[in-house]
């Protein structure tokens, strides 16, 4: 029956021709191949985000007077609403986590080298955008923590010289975080960001398809010295089936997190109360937040916060352009970039833990 | 008088008056201050006669431009004691205690004059004072009773809104206690002197002095400040109704109101006492220690049964709210969303508070009505908590089934891959 349907479609759409490139695609097999899965898992989590996000849209109402109540309604009244919302929230966090893992694995495996600079750049832009997804989505339930986290976050953005203040007003939809900010963030979260992300994902996947999987320089050198050691597996179906297994594991982890630790709702935001003591941003912004906290209020004649924001922006820009600092000879790599990558990983993890434990 | 004048001129002794006058004028010109010979001399005096410029500058009257001569008369521009304190210059000397209310009233009872300083100030203090026990006794010649300066202090009188003022709400009780807690001073009046000690243990003192709630009552709230009792209150014992409106309305309609009146019992005070009013609790309804009903009622009578019924209802509601809280806390700790029920718990607590107010009607049916409202809400909230836990268990079972299916799928895929690659 299924075979008949596939044959019927193939006669009309030439499906075989469409997936032919995938049939020819191979994936290098070596001791570090498992890092390849994280890109696919991140993509899978994004698909879950889109699907659960659409379901949440059926009930969510943006607006300072309705947002919290609508999420509460989803959590308590809508059949399996709690599950959809919990999966959406957990999946968002896992997606950012796997995107970071993917980014660092690409860094350490030197997969960004020529000719994959653009794949890296689109990947980094996607990482920034998923963090933007996290930031804009965090406000949508309109609870106290989200309200003040947005207030602090947009205030930090406002510290950027010259464009900071107009940018803060643009983000907030005014001088303060209000219902206007919520509707604006909702717009970014469900329309602007998804559109850009889908386009970038398409380019990113196209480039991966075009250039194939990168092989780490050390493995590449071993294979050049001993061509018989080269191993590859077919993308379709061998690699895809393994990826499918990883996706199933991701579904299991998500289901367990949603069932055992349902995502909380908190207390409805009240702009007239003072901020809760020790308020912190979401974990993926903690390393930057803690960095800003540690910088003195004045460094020489420069305002500490301005210096911190500028530093983070420049570090982000440098990271975005990392492949262009690498040697253009595929067999040779620059050791200082590896050292810097280790430092970046230790710094991000260390500062996040420090930020989590700090009062 | 002669010795006082000698005391006031030691620094000038042996010097010519014109030289002193020039020096003082030069000094005051240099500092840009008006001459006030009273303060210059009295700042060097001892005891009651000492008034320093620092102290007087704190006085609201000084800040409004009044000087020593405004009350005491005399000529403050002269450094000659004979001239400064001459009767010709209107010097009154130390104001007689009996004359103090009248002296203060000469300004404070003048609406036209007071309006120039603060239009919101009352001008009936003197009239009120005449109706008070203090005022009546003073008129009868008892100079031990309080006059204006005893409460408001003298030469450093601050507005009542100033936290350092002796008549600021937070300080009033202490000010009254200076006389009313002095057993020796009060001996001749034959009234108790434990009011301040009792008040210090009361819920009202706690609210005012500890929590800083300036709306909480102090001595003058019930007893009045200048007059005997606050306006509109015929007896001090009825003053509770000014704040505890609903309790008073219930009580007025109750059988107790008439019974207490007939027996000459002082209303609220019978059960709650007066100065040492503690936080009321349901224990007051018990038949054991802390209970107040059985002081008058006999065990087993109709009222005792009503008391037991009301106490039982309140205890049940209190316990129901407690068990609903417990169920909701448990559900919350399991990550379940029960915030609506949490919010609704406030309604149950409101019903309990209302029932405790309705007790003052002493009607079982009315109290029971409020209790039942609270019981219904608490029961629903408890059910919401328990349902959430049942739901949590369902989720875990669902998760288990889901994980088994995923594990089977993974094993199947792995076997398929192995088969494919072999």
Structural features, described:
The complex is a heterodimer of chains A (359) and B (422). With 359 residues, chain A is mostly helical. Chain A has a domain at 26-224 and 233-271: Up-down Bundle (Cytochrome Bc1 Complex, Chain C), CATH 1.20.810. Chain A is 68% helix and 3% strand. Chain A is built from 14 helices and four strands. In chain A, the strands form two sheets. A two-stranded antiparallel sheet of chain A has the order 1-2. Chain A has a two-stranded antiparallel ribbon with strand order 3-4. The radius of gyration of chain A is 23 Å and the shape is globular. Chain B is mostly helical. In chain B, 58% of the residues lie in helices and 0% in strands. Chain B is built from 23 helices and no strands. The radius of gyration of chain B is 35 Å and the shape is elongated. The A-B interface holds A 72, 75-76, 82-83, 237-238, 241-242, 244-245, 248-249, 251-252, 255-256, 259-262, 264-265, 267 and B 335-337, 339-340, 395-396, 398-399, 402-403, 406-407, 409-410, 413-414, 416-417, 420-421.
Overall helicity of chain A: 55-70%
Uncertain ranges of chain A: none
For the largest beta sheet of chain A, what order do the strands appear in spatially? 1-2
At the fourth level of CATH, the homologous superfamily of the domain at 26-224 and 233-271 in chain A is: Cytochrome Bc1 Complex, Chain C
* DSSP summary: helix tally of chain A: 14
Strand content of chain A: under 5%
Provide keyphrases for this structure.
heterodimer, A: 359 residues, mainly alpha, Cytochrome Bc1 Complex, Chain C, two-stranded antiparallel sheet, globular, B: 422 residues, 23 helices, disordered N terminus
